């Protein structure tokens, strides 16, 4: 990849959400915003190799996308009425800031997460429009086919247009009904950045993790008393703190038990632990913790010791038991079994894992977990077969390298 291609790829990662949000703010139409943004990036592919990368790629892309959007409106069959309407509503300047926080991407996220949409549609649409994730990436996050996900996003955009859902941060009274979808999106955006699902991207995408944390901080400023917002921020910070230790110099994933804990970010860990302690105090006062608060507490247990051997696995299992009552998903059950392996042994964990096969047969982490348990039990041939299944399903290049090494080490 040459320098210009790298610049365009970097601009797409860093500027996509900003361009789409800015155009949505001006034209009030997600289809127009997304299509014009895509056209602007296509224009960059044509022009930047000849003209050079502009000093401010984001501004160039936004200006180009605005022109593309206006050209499209003019070309449409009812172009006069639509163009006049757009100019009357928006004029040549963006509207005044709406909501308590002036952030276009946060507004766009709340638009996509309107309660009129089904939860899965809210999350998928926002991952596309705000997170800038590709259709294959979103489909992998939901473990569904790409065509299914495309149809879901198309229907969601059509419903937003038909229902005239406003582009704004909702009022204080409306926030609780909207925040669950927003949190789900932020969590998935962060996860895609922390361990990218595709083979054609960096194994860790700093642009996504950074943006997810930034938006979650904004959301916490909007809702300082919401325990789940605080819990998600704590979870992100404690996870991001391990960033530099997660991929080796050779590009291989480094699992938690092999990481150099001295390389973890002590400042992020301290902030994350403080948020967890605040939520534990609230729970002691009778405020039942939600999913993200429990996940943050699990992460706090892992990051509170300097040696993996000092981990309080009984506490981790107890927290997963608590989480299972809120989220009885097979992935939660799988993660609980991983902790059980440290407490009760790999044979007990493997029995729990095997019960999940029907639900997680297409999930690479299931087979990787099973492979590791079989390895620990000395069942090398079965472990190798499980590693092969995991490698066939995984997309992340660092994770692929790690799984290949573990498989090749089997006797």
From TrEMBL:
<dbReference type="InterPro" id="IPR036388">
    <property type="entry name" value="WH-like_DNA-bd_sf"/>
</dbReference>
<keyword id="KW-0804">Transcription</keyword>
<dbReference type="InterPro" id="IPR007627">
    <property type="entry name" value="RNA_pol_sigma70_r2"/>
</dbReference>
<dbReference type="InterPro" id="IPR013249">
    <property type="entry name" value="RNA_pol_sigma70_r4_t2"/>
</dbReference>
<protein>
    <submittedName>
        <fullName>RNA polymerase sigma factor</fullName>
    </submittedName>
</protein>
<dbReference type="InterPro" id="IPR011990">
    <property type="entry name" value="TPR-like_helical_dom_sf"/>
</dbReference>
<dbReference type="InterPro" id="IPR013325">
    <property type="entry name" value="RNA_pol_sigma_r2"/>
</dbReference>
<dbReference type="InterPro" id="IPR013324">
    <property type="entry name" value="RNA_pol_sigma_r3/r4-like"/>
</dbReference>
<feature type="domain" description="RNA polymerase sigma factor 70 region 4 type 2">
    <location>
        <begin position="109"/>
        <end position="160"/>
    </location>
</feature>
<comment type="similarity">
    <text>Belongs to the sigma-70 factor family. ECF subfamily.</text>
</comment>
<dbReference type="GO" id="GO:0016987">
    <property type="term" value="F:sigma factor activity"/>
</dbReference>
<feature type="domain" description="RNA polymerase sigma-70 region 2">
    <location>
        <begin position="18"/>
        <end position="78"/>
    </location>
</feature>
<dbReference type="GO" id="GO:0003677">
    <property type="term" value="F:DNA binding"/>
</dbReference>
<dbReference type="GO" id="GO:0006352">
    <property type="term" value="P:DNA-templated transcription initiation"/>
</dbReference>
<keyword id="KW-0805">Transcription regulation</keyword>
<dbReference type="InterPro" id="IPR046531">
    <property type="entry name" value="DUF6596"/>
</dbReference>
<keyword id="KW-0731">Sigma factor</keyword>
<feature type="domain" description="DUF6596">
    <location>
        <begin position="178"/>
        <end position="278"/>
    </location>
</feature>
<dbReference type="Pfam" id="PF08281">
    <property type="entry name" value="Sigma70_r4_2"/>
</dbReference>
<dbReference type="Pfam" id="PF20239">
    <property type="entry name" value="DUF6596"/>
</dbReference>
<dbReference type="Pfam" id="PF04542">
    <property type="entry name" value="Sigma70_r2"/>
</dbReference>
């Amino acid at each position: 990849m040459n320098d210009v291609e790298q610049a365009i790829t970097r601009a797409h990662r860093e500027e996509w959400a900003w361009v789409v949000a800015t155009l949505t703010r001006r034209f009030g139409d997600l289809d127009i915003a997304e299509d014009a943004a895509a056209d602007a990036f296509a224009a960059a592919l044509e022009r930047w190799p000849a003209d050079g990368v502009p000093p401010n790629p984001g501004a160039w892309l936004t200006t180009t996308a605005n022109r593309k959007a206006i050209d499209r409106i003019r070309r449409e069959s009812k172009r006069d009425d639509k163009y006049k309407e757009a100019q009357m509503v928006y004029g040549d300047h963006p509207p005044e800031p709406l909501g308590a926080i002036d952030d276009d991407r946060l507004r766009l996220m709340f638009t996509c997460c309107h309660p009129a949409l089904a939860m899965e549609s809210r999350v998928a649409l926002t991952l596309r429009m705000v997170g800038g994730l590709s259709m294959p990436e979103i489909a992998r996050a939901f473990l569904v086919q790409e065509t299914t996900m495309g149809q879901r996003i198309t229907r969601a955009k059509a419903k937003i247009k038909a229902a005239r859902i406003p582009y704004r941060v909702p009022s204080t009274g409306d926030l609780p009904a909207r925040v669950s979808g927003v949190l789900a999106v932020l969590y998935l955006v962060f996860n895609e950045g922390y361990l990218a699902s595709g083979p054609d991207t960096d194994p860790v995408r700093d642009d996504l993790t950074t943006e997810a944390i930034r938006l979650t901080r904004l959301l916490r400023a909007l809702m300082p008393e919401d325990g789940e917002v605080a819990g998600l921020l704590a979870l992100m910070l404690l996870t991001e703190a391990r960033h530099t230790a997660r991929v080796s110099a050779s590009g291989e994933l480094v699992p938690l038990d092999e990481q150099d804990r001295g390389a973890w970010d002590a400042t992020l860990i301290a902030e994350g632990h403080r948020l967890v302690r605040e939520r534990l105090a609230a729970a002691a006062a009778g405020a039942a913790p939600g999913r993200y608060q429990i996940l943050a507490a699990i992460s706090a247990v892992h990051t509170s010791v300097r040696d993996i051997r000092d981990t309080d696995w009984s506490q981790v299992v107890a927290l997963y038991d608590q989480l299972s009552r809120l989220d009885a998903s097979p992935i939660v059950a799988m993660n609980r079994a991983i902790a059980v392996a440290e407490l009760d042994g790999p044979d007990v964990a493997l029995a729990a894992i095997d019960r999940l096969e029907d639900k997680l047969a297409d999930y690479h982490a299931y087979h990787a977990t099973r492979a590791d348990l079989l390895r620990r039990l000395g069942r090398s041939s079965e472990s190798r077969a499980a590693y092969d299944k995991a490698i066939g399903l995984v997309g992340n290049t660092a994770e692929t390298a790690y799984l290949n090494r573990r498989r090749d080490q089997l006797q």
